[in-house]
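Appendix B, record 7
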Amino acid sequence: MIENKTASRVWSALLNNYPHQNGRWASVWNKLAAFADGIYSGSTVSLNIHGQKTYLNYGHAYPIFSRRFKDWNNPLIEAVWQIYELLGRPIDFVDVGAGIGDTARLLQANCPKMIRHFHCIEGDLEFYNYLAANLDSPDAASIYKAMLSSNNGEISSLVRHHSGSSASQGPEKVLCTTLDNLLSSRKEKIHLIKIDVDGLDGQILAGSREILASDKSAVIFEWHPILCKQAGYSWLEHFEVLSELDYTRYIWFNKYGNFSHFMTGFDKRAIEQTANVCLGGLHDDDWHYDVIALPSACNLSDVALANLPHARHRKSWY
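Structure tokens (predicted):
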């Protein structure tokens, strides 16, 4: 990694003075940030993220989002806690759409020693390079440069929505594989799968049937009808795939990490109604949900997950 140290200092100073409320300083801060972005966009910087030095691209969205939304990612933290407590030992975790390794950093800080091994998968080459630099211990993490979908074949290339995210909406075709194929040689059971891939989540679940059927992994995925529509995929597919595999319990959280509601079984009408609310944009122009899905026989407590008792006392936000 060739770090632009000046850019690192500028980005760190801006983040350390981030305005948590609207007002005059917020207006000034936004102007300063836009000016600096014009100079340093594309630079490699390093920040202290969740207590560890982390390489990333200048202006990456994670440090901003984690400052704006204090409950963001709480459902994921809670799922790791609850599974760890249920099993009484560290778990194996799959992170699809691992980005720069920010999720791993988050869990290492807030769920210390609760994850035996990370399987981190990223299709964006720049993000993958940062991911490999940040998680450089093969004993703790396996890093994969791969595009995933429902089958082995081709898929639309990635394009950037913003500095911290890529979506499979590009004009070119690139090779893809399935999560089942990518992890076919695994020796340990997968306990939790997190998927956050800007509208492609249902397709990746469709390519994970073997793992889900054999391991009965808990799943947390982003359900984003707006991005599903943009990418040309169904917002029903997530639940169609899971229901075929006897996943009947769903705990819904809004985009900010707060509990929303429960759903039992594949309630197509409720899903379509919720999708229409998201697409309408009247509540929020980017409204979406994170959903924890559990098999019917899973011993985790839906209510405990919804109440977020451990995540409410998280120790690290950014």
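Remarks on this record: The first strand starts at residue 44 and ends at 49. The chain has 13 helices and twelve strands.
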